[in-house]
Amino acid sequence: MSMQPLSLSPASFLQLMWLASPALPIGGFSYSEGLEAGVNAALVGNEAEAADWIAEQLQLSQARGDMAVLAQAMQAWQRDDRARVVALNAWVLQTRESSELRLQAEQMGRSLVAWLQNRHADDAQALALVNWLATQDASYPLAFALAAHLAGAGPRDALLAYAFGWAENMVQAAIKSVPLGQSAGQRILARLAQAIPGAADHALALGDDQRQAFSPMLAILSARHEHQYSRLFRS
């Protein structure tokens, strides 16, 4: 059987794997994005419910919002359209529906920018872009877009990496909070891996007037989580 060539160079492919890794020191492991509040409210209590929850969040929240922003931000970075980057970043921050969700976008953005400053310390041109973004209170999707752009990736490949990294963090949150076993987590991740390419294509097709951040029940649960008595996660 013949092997299909990579669409990315090996260096770019490895950079995307690095960016998607839960080991990247940006704090993604500390957030459940409302899942822990869903468990506390008895909305998620087993493998099937956790799988449905995360899969629906992929389609309703990520694909329609942050992933669409990421794709558009990568196109802006390719054109060096910084006004567009600023506008997209403002949209992300203004559409966070709870203080916890905004905290996550800001904290992970700052942490990824700091990682990029270290990663590109010897590349003056790349570092100039990273340092400029550091002055913009960059949210995580915008920081990831620059990271993927500097890695030489295209928008679709970046979306696949971003979404899989998000999925891994969410599955780990489910394993800890429901709780679930590792085999259950792998089954959920397999389901998400099948859905991610379609979610990426949907995100790529959205324009500014179609992008949205409207998940009212998730917002309510996130707000409740801020006052939840016992918590493992920051959201």
TrEMBL record:
InterPro entries: UreF, UreF_sf. It is found in: Cytoplasm. One of its GO terms (cellular component) is cytoplasm. Gene3D superfamilies: Urease accessory protein UreF. The keyword Cytoplasm applies. Pfam families: UreF (PF01730). GO terms for molecular function: nickel cation binding. Keywords: Chaperone, Cytoplasm, Nickel insertion. Signal peptide: none annotated. Required for maturation of urease via the functional incorporation of the urease nickel metallocenter. UreD, UreF and UreG form a complex that acts as a GTP-hydrolysis-dependent molecular chaperone, activating the urease apoprotein by helping to assemble the nickel containing metallocenter of UreC. The UreE protein probably delivers the nickel. Belongs to the UreF family. This is Urease accessory protein UreF. It comes from Comamonas piscis. The gene is ureF.
